Amino acid sequence: MKMLWERDGRSSRRAFMLGACGLTALAFLAFAAAPAAWAQERDVSLGLPGVRGGVVTTSEPQAAQVGARVLRAGGNAIDAAVAVQFALNVLEPQSSGIGGGGFMMIHLAESKKTFVVDSRESAPAAADPGMFLLASDPSSAFPFGIRSTSGIAVGVPGTLRGVATALESWGTMPLPQLLQPAIEMAEQGIRVSSRLAESVSSARLDSEPGNPAYDQARAVFRPGGVPLAEGDLLVQPDLAKTLKRIAEQGPDAFYGGEIARAIVDTQRNARSLADPVDQAKLVGRMTLADLANYRPAIRQPVTGDYRGLRIVSMPPPSSGGLTVIQILKLLERFPIGDESKGFGFGSAKTLHVMIEAMRLAFADRAVWMGDDDFVDVPSKGLLDNAYIALRSKQIDPGARRADVQADDPRPFDTAALPAKVELAALALPDEEGVNTTHFTVVDRDGNIVTYTSTIESAWGTGLMVPGFGFLLNNELTDFNRIPAFNPDPDAFNPGANDVAPGKRPRSSMAPTMVFRDGQPRAAFGSPGGSTIIDTVVNVAMNLIDHEMPVQEAVDAPRIAQTSANGATRRELGFSEAALEGLAALGHSLRSPGEIGSVQAVVLDPRGQRQFGAADKRRIGGVVSLRRARSAAD
Ligand code: GLU
Fold this sequence. Notes:
Elements: H1 13-19, E1 27-31, H2 35-47, E2 54-58, H3 61-72, H4 77-91, E3 101-108, E4 113-118, H5 144-147, H6 159-170, H7 175-188, E5 190-191, H8 194-200, H9 212-221, E6 233-234, H10 237-249, H11 252-255, H12 257-266, H13 276-281, H14 288-293, E7 297-299, E8 302-306, E9 309-313, H15 320-331, H16 348-368, H17 379-383, H18 385-392, H19 410-413, E10 437-443, E11 448-454, E12 512-516, E13 519-524, H20 531-544, H21 550-555, E14 559-560, E15 569-570, H22 576-584, E16 600-603, E17 610-613, E18 621-625, H23 629-632
Antiparallel strand pairs: 1-18, 2-10, 2-18, 3-4, 3-11, 4-7, 5-6, 8-9, 9-12, 10-11, 12-13, 13-16, 14-15, 16-17
């Protein structure tokens, strides 16, 4: 089967008209803020017969422009991605930045190698599994609103070392050059976007009025107590100073010295609570040694086959790749694309089996997945064909399964481990943010970066490092808040994601690439906490099963199920008949709400034409570069 998105791109009159201009390097920038402008972007990304000079797609159009400038100046995808990340720290400070972490997947065209730079935040050496428990009542954890806005939630930041490592190893440009656009934007100011303006009013910036550590961010984003509005000028001199210092002295200026000391001091702030013992528990435990010792990890992605394509995605400590691939493989036996059999996009039957597969995979995720530098994650077993077949049998196309439980993939992982003897699964509901960002870059040579980057919740902890202008993440709230370790070696051990010193919290981030015969065909990912996994599955199925062109695949309404037995999230846009069909099968659907924000690139079968798409659910900007004739032809 040859997917629509794998065939040569479609041409349009507009494309020919633009092509006839005879410009040697033409950039197409699309803004998706208004419906009319979005329609224009659709034209740009779909109407043109693809480009060859590179594509940058981000949730912030100005960040896409920054990346495109790097590509135009001769930089590769890694260079552009580094510049985009710094630009996003200025443009979208509530979502990602040097105070956070992320997962960058890189494909190098020449060596055909695909790997991951894991810059996930880690727990300090003094962390312990009970650190989120109330001192006054150790059977309960601090509520999310409290622990996620306290120093105890701050993980050792990884983003800067992550991008610097990627750049040193696979980039071509010096770090100071790639910091320059962000420094200029922070110094000279940016116009506040609609999304930033909306976020500035969020309650996550309300913590602890009068506490200087929390007042810092308010002073920047609510100057004089007035939230910045769309179109206002936002100047960030402290952030500019920090980025300049990194440009002059390198990443060590962040992981040691004055900035490191300021980070450690800032995360020692806690929310004020009536009980002084409880309050003391919320103080962050990061030390200068934790910062100095932080290193990103270079990892092999997890892979699995789906309808003849190879899905390559994020390994532990993210649960993203394993869960995405499990869901797809659980669904592979159904003719999802075949409308004549009652399937096809958005039919009740298709949505039903998707939900059932998501339930099964999320049940396993809750028990088995965590940082496999610390725990044995049965990754092979979870994706083993025999195990998948066993699990997939539990999907009845005609009925919702009453109760979904995790199973034991260990016998399929290695013969040495015993089979399950009891079930002790603890599925705590996830309380992850949805404010991360995802961007994708492909360059003229076919190198690809697809990168999900985060400070976890909007504004992270809300703690901004005084005088340095960046926010500290609350990533450690992605760990189990109540330890779930089961000491019985024969039992299920849902403690895979318990806190431990130096461990990285389980993520859902899932930058993903799709390959056929070794050639990359698509690269994408999304923010959205645990719904990231479902979003990536929706888009993969839209491309592969429903043969949609990339922008349609991104635009189409999504469903998401993030637990074994809870309700299903959905977006507006599914037919009444499908929704009624799901209700009749026993599914309970939440009221509609947006899910994810996908930035995707698709490549033609020979890897020559590149198509970008940005998600209209956020602002979204794609820059597509036609290759300069003189250089290319
Ligand atoms: N902290 C989440 C994770 O690592 C991401 C949060 C988000 O998408 O906003 O999975």
